[in-house]
Amino acid sequence: MTNGFAERLVRSAGAAVLVCLFATAADAQRTELISMPAPAPAEMRVVFFDRQSASLSPVAKSIVLGAVDAAERAHAKRIEIAAYAADDESARESNLAARRAAVVKEQIAHYGFQGTVVVDEEGPELPLAGLADGTFDRRVTLSIVR
Predict the structure, then answer these.
(1) What is the pLDDT of residue 129?
(2) Of the candidates 135, 106, 140, the residue with the CA atom closest to the CA atom of residue 122
(3) In the chain, what are the domain boundaries?
(4) In this predicted model, what pLDDT tens digit does every residue of 98-145 receive, in sequence order?
(5) Closest of 29, 33, 28, 42 to residue 7, by C-alpha
(6) How far is residue 91's CA from residue 29's CA, in Å, rounded to a whole number?
(7) Which sign, positive or negative, has the C-alpha torsion 120, 51, 53, 55?
(8) Which residues pair with 44 in a beta bridge?
(9) What number of helices (H) and strands (E) belong to the chain?
(10) Coil, strand, or helix at residue 23?
């Protein structure tokens, strides 16, 4: 006989959470492994900007539109935006990352996304190895949260 509390806990958690739980028998003579599938990872899109710019190119607009379409197909309730600027850009204009986030948020609204848009103007530190000119730092990431 398995622990009923553990079974109810696993059932109530649903597929949204990866659970590996040991449910011990009531008489503590047997252990069962109960597991659930991992949640689908959040879908992410990346928009790159020209140096010292917060303007969306036609390609960038199509990426934002793709993110909105993907969010709607997934019935996502939220899109999270994290904005970045290269060190040399931030030295010249301290609010460039915030302006980039605002432009992307406006574009998401323009495309009619009905969910919430959350902006993290400083974004998590995600060092990207690559071009020495800071190309990878001139970006906004869009995470579709289901």
Answers:
(1) 52
(2) 140
(3) 4-35, 43-145
(4) 999 999 999 999 999 999 999 985 655 555 555 556 678 899 999 999
(5) 33
(6) 64
(7) negative
(8) 143
(9) 4, 6
(10) strand
Cβ-in-10-Å burial (0-12, 13-18, 19+) of 129 comes to exposed
Distance CA 40, CA 56 (A): 29
Q: Give the CATH class of 43-145.
A: alpha beta
Q: Report, as an integer, the average pLDDT of 12-38.
A: 45
Dist. CA 101–CA 140, nearest whole Å: 7
- The pLDDT-based confidence of 61 (bands split at 50, 70, 90) is very high
Task: Return the closest-CA partner of residue 122 out of 136, 108, 107, 137.
Answer: 137
Angstrom CA distances, 22 to 18, 54, 95, 97, 133, stand at: 13, 51, 49, 45, 50
Q: Which residue type sits at 61? A: K
**pLDDT of 22:** 36
